[in-house]
Amino acid sequence: MAKAIMVQGTMSNVGKSLVTAGLCRIFKQDGYKVAPFKSQNMALNSYITKDGLEMGRAQVMQAEAAKIEPSVLMNPILLKPTNDTGSQVIVNGEVRCVMGAKDYYKYKHELRPEVEKAFEKLSEENDIIVIEGAGSPAEINLMEDDFVNMGMAKIAKAPVLLVGDIDRGGVFAQLYGTKELLPEDEQKMIKGMIVNKFRGDVSILKPGLVDLEKKCNVPVVGVAPYLYIDVEDEDSLTERFDGNKEAALIDIAVIRIPRISNFTDFNIFEGIEGVSLRYVKNVKELKNPDMVIIPGTKNTMKDLKWMRENGLEAAILHLAHKGTVIFGVCGGYQMLGESISDPDGVEEGGFIKGMGLIPMDTEFKGEKTRTRVNGHFMEVSGVLSGLSNVEVEGYEIHMGISTLKDQAKTMTNIKDSVSNEEKQDGAYHKNVYGTYIHGVFDKEDVANAVVKSLADEKGVEITNLATMDFKEYKEKQYDILAEELRKNLDMDKIYKILEAGI
Predict the structure, then answer these.
(1) Active site includes 438?
(2) pTM
(3) What is the CATH code of the structural domain delimited by 3-231+475-500?
(4) pLDDT digits (tens, 9 = 90+) for 74-122
């Protein structure tokens, strides 16, 4: 069985996912077969494995860092929020049900055996498992039946590294307070503390670290710097949304709908010189982009109503009629049609008019489409004609079926890797395009074709189009992450903690 070590945090977004990924890469570099694990993940960014199962993207990112194929064993439970109080519950990659928070809290003990089985199987296949916790282990109202933080550490017999975020202030109180709120047996499971996202002179911090170690009787195993590492983000706490707000030569605006999912679909554009990728949430921020992207969402109907109420739909329609390229992905694609109906109450129930930009109707069905696909764009006309015959690959996760009408033209011809069937996906009409394929832009040729087409339409020249392989670029980012953690964490001490266990 594998040895296990667990990364927990004092709160959400302290950097647990990144530290876990970095440790995965370090252990891999040191010759071990390593895998990530998170028993329960709550996020709208998900991924479809080769066998058509759904899991959280954070563990996919960590699997990439470990140089292994992602598996739902690494994330047996995924909760995808449908509203502020309820989530779709995905167990071992398949939808189990939709539940309110209160009902799930009563139900979750039934899922513990699934977590234990997944962890045991993963342990049989690896030397080291790096486990990520969720939120904070000191949520005293949630400790009963916990199998996400200290409860998971007990299942795995894993020593815990506790991570605090100094960038948001109060890191000493975070670390000390988290430990003190835990029962005595769980306090003893914390074997090391990490101060994360530090900017400045570490020597100024050292007196506080010495006092913290004395008060907690736990060593500080490192002070990790604030790292500008470009890897995929887990959820809407991402700092990407607060990034570039200035328009570049080619300006792409992504609508930041409330239930945005799989926004990792657009990361590649951030690496292309002369291109700005801006996430916008109101008409004032929208400005006059060269392309508007409406992304995936966990609730198409509700997010379309949100755009309708705050004026973004009207602004997008105005841009579309002026000739601006509008591109919808998954739920965003569904919004572009003429109607969305939900007779079985999969989302909101009932009927809603779409934006009317593509002659198409969508009806929600109870069965979720989950598959990986590959193929090519067909002959595409309009501004994005440069996409014609370009190869594409990605994955589908959606509940609706869209039916095209006479004037809409199909956009891609693809093969379903699960069923092996060939099918057509997506549509375009004039300057409006849409697809169900997540990751549609990830291939370099696709992203370059989009940018070049937008530049040609605008009458400008982009001289340094991306020539890098996106996968190769991510590999370099994982290596940089590992290098920086090696410099700033006491890996000898961490190996001793791993070896000693609990």
Answers:
(1) yes
(2) 0.85
(3) 3.40.50.300
(4) 999 999 987 777 899 999 999 999 899 889 988 999 999 999 999 999 9
